[in-house]
Amino acid sequence: MSIWWSLHLRREAASVPLARRLLLGTMETAGVDPDVSHDLSVALSEACANAVEHGGDAATEDYRVTAFINGDTCRIEVTDSGPGFRERARRSKRPGRSALPDHAPPPPMAAPAPAQAEHGRGLFLIEALTDHVRYRNRTGRRGAVVSFDKILKWKEEVPLMAS
Fold first, then answer.
1. For residue 130, with 0-12 CB atoms within 10 Å meaning exposed, 13-18 middle and 19 or more buried, which class applies?
2. Partners of residue 136 on adjacent β-strands
């Protein structure tokens, strides 16, 4: 099974639940385990919130969300038109996960947020809830791309897999 969709959204807080609901509806219809769907929806919400908050200036009022289900993997990409990530080196934090190749742009260096902080945990949540995360700057244009993959688990009776 292969499913994909793409949204072009205004950089407004109201766009975040819209993207999350579309993802959850797609996952439920496809028969994805609710725990996996929840993890992906939280990760997507964090990536969208970052795009809304940091994804550009007054002249750049939009961002894009694209989701792909291909076989047992879901990949989500959130692309904005902001200043992009700062050039600091860091590798994938989880052993056994794919590290970024040497030629890839370095991901952001996020310092851990203080325990009572209400902001600053988004990238850490995305990394904790998904199997592989990649940060990069857009090629030849302003903006950043956050993409993340998650291996899917299926409900016992999967409507789309049966057809």
1. buried
2. 145
| Structure tokens, 11 | 């950089």
Please, what is the Cα angle at 148 between 145 and 151, to 5 degrees? 160
With residue 69 as reference, give the H or E element that holds it.
Answer: strand 62-70
Q: What is the per-residue pLDDT across 80-122, written as a single tens digit (0 to 9) for each? A: 988 888 743 333 344 444 444 434 444 554 555 555 545 557 8
- Nearest one of 62, 64, 68 to 5, comparing CA atoms: 68
What pLDDT is stored for residue 88 in this prediction? Answer: 31
DSSP state of 98: P
Bridge partners, residue 76, by sequence:
67, 148
Given this model, what pLDDT does residue 58 score?
64
The answer to whether the Cα torsion of 122, 5, 18, 13 is positive or negative is positive
